Amino acid sequence: MSAASQSDEHSRTLEDEIIRHAQELGFAVVGFVAPSDIPDTEQPLRDFVELDRHGDMSWLAKDVSKRSHPSRLWQDAKSIVVLGMRYTPTGDPMERLQSPELGNISVYALGSDYHDVIKKRLKRIGRWLSEAYNCELKVFVDTAPVMEKPIAQMAGLGWQGKHTNLVSPSDGSWLFLGSIFTTLDLAPSASQPDQCGSCQRCLDICPTEAFPTPYQLDARRCISYLTIEHKGHIPEEFRSAMGNRIYGCDDCLAVCPWNKFAQQAAEAALAPRTELVAPSLPELAELDDQSFRKLFSGSPVKRTGRDRFVRNVLIAIGNSRSKDLIPSAKALLDDPSPLVRAMAVWALAQLMETRDFAALRKRYAESENDPDVKAEWLRQNDSI
Fold it and tell me: Which CATH class is domain 280-384?
């Protein structure tokens, strides 16, 4: 056997071993790519930032050059192993939108925080690789300036759809991604071509029209961004469209036709927690900081903080059209957080009779010290 053949045989065996270890740890798909084969995304990313489509996500503007190509993150890396773990929902997430008195939390956040789950598994694979093959490596799970979706496409896991998310031919839209950068020289997988065709269901379903054109997202209009990343008051133009979505949005993912090929998720740690599937809005509105932290311990929801989360809950209460939820909103008019008080005002303006709301405004508006909350009282008074 020639030296080249021996090298190819070794490389194939090593890749098979990596795939086997990954599958044993719950990863459904694995691909390989060399950093030199990955296109530079600096200009599209700069265009995105210059148009302010990143909103409050200042880290995107800070790390444009480093984020745009993996070699700038770690120049010694010769290969990237990209891994995907399923979080396929058991039913149609869109059905929960039909229960306006219940909260709707995005599928990915119903179980344990995927960052923690996946990173522990990647470290186990990394420990084995470094000990068995004397290599250097770094592991990443959405916590460093890594453009994971285009890298995953080049590694053969799928393609970036018109909604800018990864679409997998075997798992639709329901994959968590992680990556291992390594000094090992691994044979690359075949990249995936775009297979969206003429379909644009993901664009048409978006409640806030967050896609200016196919393959482009304006995060400032995206409900996932607004309910999770946005730190301030949610613009009034998006509140009604939010419905009962209190953390994230699955609409553009859920309607993808490729989901019909998605296989059931098997990772127990990512299984939905019963108390987070369609929770009661009045109960969520009662959360203080301590009870919020307790309820969402180990959940990605926890990182939004209580005030932003209750802000979202109050918008859902306003959208419920249920007068039974008026007491829940009223109870928060004296909340310490201006974010919460302002959305309590908005919710009550949606639910109360005009005369009753005007009386409430007379009682609270004059004593309100926060300019944004005061403006909300005046704005809602003008609109009723």
Answer: mainly alpha
